[in-house]
Amino acid sequence: MTHSPRWIVYLSMILVTTLASADADGPSPFQRNFLDQFPDLHKVILKTKATTTPDAQHAAVEALIRRLLPPKDAARFLFDVNPSAFSDPAVDTAKITSNGKVVRILGNSGTACTFALYDFLKYQCGCQVAWSGRQLTLPAVFPVITRVVRKADWLHYYQNVCTASYSSVWWNWTRWEQEIDWMALQGINFPLAFTGQEEMWRRVYSKRGLNDDDLAGFFVGPAFLAWGRMGNIRRWDGPLSAHWLNGQVELQHKILERMASLGIIPILPAFGGIVPEALQRIYPQMKYSRLQSWSHFPDNMTRSYLLDPSDPLYVSLGQEFIHEMQAEYGSVTHFYNADTFNEQRPNTSYD
To answer: What is the pLDDT of residues 285-301, one digit of tens each?
Structure first.
């Protein structure tokens, strides 16, 4: 049974939900049947581990605790990253050993170590790291314990496609660094990483013959990116400047590098079928439909163009977009996410 790259992308989105509910002992019979039906995806999930070395993850964990705690407090924690330390390398697991003076944490990944670190800080020291502030006053003598912490699931997913426009589009690297540290402490190892995709699309469509004016009628402004990406609106509050586009690519490099260093597996964006109106000029025979108007926007700023998945252009555009990201950022993940029908009614054969 073979599947096209298009279906690999979309079934991967299903797989995010399917495997996120797997317990620590592995997939349920239903999940196992799903994986058996799609062997290509089974191969992908077997590769779903960080590509960075244990030494690199160890260095990243050490750097995180130095950002988190004063030097004297940070020196009271020692880490070891060993992927073979526990029986199931697929599930983040760590052993915490405290003698009252020093805490040693042995984990099978960077995120296993950071998850265990926060477990100790929170439950043994009464500390907290939150979006709104931190309480990190440590006791002079630690509780003496030996404890194994094991995450319940293989993958811990984070964010949704609207988060960028609600919050993170305004973040600089300092704020992103804080967020990624928070992810690692919470044991999150499977977040969305959607920053910088508009420049990738600019490159794809420029190679297809579209110009800056064409794309000015397609891209929305930074505060509305989520709804532009999902096809609710187009053009609104645009265009995007070259300076802004390049700055987002530079920021995405830092985000992906930091995630990888900690053992976090990013989910990158994929092609959901929304295309610029001007693409008709280059491909007058392309098959497409128009989405409905949305939230009382005028028609020239909504009713986006949705390429038909049966059109060969659909697969080639999707492939080119992923290739552009791989050329820019490297092979950092096997997982991609697309979200098309946000508050939209899909066209059907019954319409």
So the answer is: 999 999 999 999 999 99
- 122-179 per-position pLDDT tens digit: 999 999 999 999 999 999 999 999 999 999 888 899 998 998 899 999 999 999 999 9
Alpha carbon distance 195, 239 (integer Å)? 17
Give the count of beta carbons closer than 10 Å to the beta carbon of residue 322.
Answer: 19
Angle at 170 between CA 276 and CA 198, to 5 degrees: 20
**Which tokens go with 11?**
């079934």
Q: Where are the alpha helices (DSSP H) in the chain?
A: 5-20, 29-37, 39-46, 54-68, 71-74, 110-125, 163-166, 173-186, 197-207, 212-216, 225-229, 242-262, 279-282, 312-329
Q: Exposed (0-12), middle (13-18) or buried (19+): which is 141, by Cβ within 10 Å?
A: exposed
Rg (CA), the chain: 22
Q: Kindly provide the b/e burial profile for residues 96-125, where b requires at least 16 CB atoms within 10 angstroms of the residue's own CB.
A: bebeeeebebbbbbbbbbbbbbbbbbeebb
Residues 6+ apart with CB under 8 A from 105: 77, 78, 79, 80, 94, 95, 96, 97, 113, 116, 117, 120
Helix ranges, 208-305 (H): 212-216, 225-229, 242-262, 279-282
- Tokens matching residue 220: 């929305």
Partners of 289 in beta bridges: 306
| Cβ partners under 8 Å of residue 4, min gap 6 | 315
Q: How far is the C-alpha of 276 from the C-alpha of 235, rounded, in Å?
A: 10
Backbone angles phi, psi at 145, to 5 degrees: -145, 160
Q: How far is 266 from 112, CA to CA, in rounded Å?
A: 16
Distance CA 325, CA 93 (A): 32
